[in-house]
Automatic annotation (TrEMBL):
<dbReference type="GO" id="GO:0000981">
    <property type="term" value="F:DNA-binding transcription factor activity, RNA polymerase II-specific"/>
</dbReference>
<dbReference type="InterPro" id="IPR002100">
    <property type="entry name" value="TF_MADSbox"/>
</dbReference>
<dbReference type="GO" id="GO:0046983">
    <property type="term" value="F:protein dimerization activity"/>
</dbReference>
<feature type="coiled-coil region">
    <location>
        <begin position="100"/>
        <end position="171"/>
    </location>
</feature>
<dbReference type="Pfam" id="PF00319">
    <property type="entry name" value="SRF-TF"/>
</dbReference>
<protein>
    <recommendedName>
        <fullName>MADS-box domain-containing protein</fullName>
    </recommendedName>
</protein>
<dbReference type="InterPro" id="IPR036879">
    <property type="entry name" value="TF_MADSbox_sf"/>
</dbReference>
<keyword id="KW-0175">Coiled coil</keyword>
<keyword id="KW-0539">Nucleus</keyword>
<feature type="domain" description="MADS-box">
    <location>
        <begin position="10"/>
        <end position="70"/>
    </location>
</feature>
<dbReference type="GO" id="GO:0005634">
    <property type="term" value="C:nucleus"/>
</dbReference>
<keyword id="KW-0804">Transcription</keyword>
<keyword id="KW-0238">DNA-binding</keyword>
<keyword id="KW-0805">Transcription regulation</keyword>
<dbReference type="GO" id="GO:0000978">
    <property type="term" value="F:RNA polymerase II cis-regulatory region sequence-specific DNA binding"/>
</dbReference>
Length: 189
């Protein structure tokens, strides 16, 4: 025993019985345990001749089944002993009804959200159309489309407006203030 070689690994460890949080680990654990469960059920059938049916749903709600001789034959035999078939049908109806109600509620919520988003979409379309209309009417857009003689007329008109503004400033006695601002502005350039 003194010459025993030390182990390089710690061996199999017991996994605590608690819900696995990570979906990837959950799926791997399910796949391994499902295979083990079906192997044990098969061994039970071979060793004792028992009739076994196992139905398991994966985390992704996919059904997996094992049965010996078959799942259907075991379920039929089990359900036909007494009123179990009627109870099973009732439970199945109740489960399907609750699922349908959940799906209806989810559908209604999604439709409400869709209506809200469609209203937002319409408001945005109107705002975009309004902005495009304003852009078409803007002076910059119109000036770019003017010909040379029209531009000369516009220049004379603007010079006339500028002259009127100067006269008004002179009348108001603000000429001095404007000159000071011009000088300051020219010094900055």
């Amino acid at each position: 025993m003194e010459n025993a070689v030390e182990k390089s690994s710690t061996g199999r460890k017991k996994i605590p019985m608690k819900k696995i949080e990570k979906p990837e680990h959950l799926q791997v654990a399910f796949s391994k345990r499902r295979v083990g469960l079906f192997k044990k059920a098969h061994e039970l059938c071979v060793l004792t001749g028992a009739k076994v049916a196992i139905i398991v749903f994966s985390p992704g709600d996919r059904p997996y089944s094992f049965g010996h001789p078959s799942v259907d034959s075991v379920l039929d035999e089990f359900l036909h002993n007494g009123n179990l078939l009627e109870e099973y049908d009732l439970l199945l109806e109740l489960n399907q009804g609750s699922n349908i109600n959940k799906l209806k509620d989810e559908y209604n919520e999604l439709m409400d959200a869709l209506q809200v988003e469609n209203k937002k979409k319409e408001k945005l379309k109107k705002a975009i159309a309004k902005a495009k209309a304003k852009a078409k009417e803007s002076d910059v857009t119109r000036v770019e489309k003017l010909e040379l003689n029209e531009l000369k007329k516009l220049k004379k008109s603007m010079e006339g407006i500028q002259k009127q503004i100067r006269e008004r400033i002179d009348e108001e006695g603000l000429h001095e203030i404007v000159n000071n601002r011009r000088k300051a502005h020219n010094n900055i350039k």
